Amino acid sequence: MADIKPIRIDKFLWSVRIYKTRSIASDECRKGRIIINDIQVKPSRAVLKDEIITVKKPPVIYSYKVIEPIENRVSAKLVGQFIEDLTTEEEKAKLNIRQSVGFIYRDKGTGRPTKKERRMIDRFKDDSNDSREGGIKT
Question: What is the pLDDT, as a whole number, of residue 110?
Fold first, then answer.
């Protein structure tokens, strides 16, 4: 049987594209945001087949099952061969809730709204709140 080389958790998280760089993955391990089988791990911890990895990226807590540990980074299309996403839909919905809470997107470089733009924004918010509540504006 072939020798199975132990793969570090920080290298594995980078190789399956959970983190953009290996150093970010190492930092997250040191901060205690990476949990394997309900135990916080250090970056040097080896990953084994069929382990459950919990990754805390506030506000969402992702869960993954290791199908096959790998050392080299793979394309996004091939990631599904090495990990299985166990994250619930409720957790993924937290991203949408966070984005929809009273924040109006403005293009970069447009600066602060003028007084006139601010009044238009306030009117728009008031109108949308009234239509949800079914109230009549007096």
Answer: 82
Task: Let me know whether 45 and 67 are in one domain.
Answer: yes
Contact 10, 43 (CB under 8 A): yes
Residue type for 88, please? T
> Once rounded to an integer, what is the mean pLDDT over residues 4-27?
93
74 in the same domain as 42: yes
Query: Does position 3 have pLDDT exceeding 90, yes or no?
Result: no
Extract the runs of DSSP E, i.e. beta strands, from 3-67: 7-8, 34-36, 39-40, 46-47, 52-57, 60-66
Asked whether residue 1 carries a pLDDT value surpassing 50, the answer given is no
pLDDT at 57 over 50: yes
> Cβ-count burial of 35 within 10 angstroms (0-12 exposed, 13-18 middle, 19+ buried)?
middle
Q: Which of 133, 57, 59, 55 is nearest to 96 (CA)?
A: 59
Closest CA to 64 of 76, 77, 81: 81
Residue 96 has pLDDT above 80, yes or no: no
Pairwise CA distance, residues 61 & 25, whole Å: 15
122 in the same domain as 95: no
In which domain, by residue range, is 21 found? 7-100
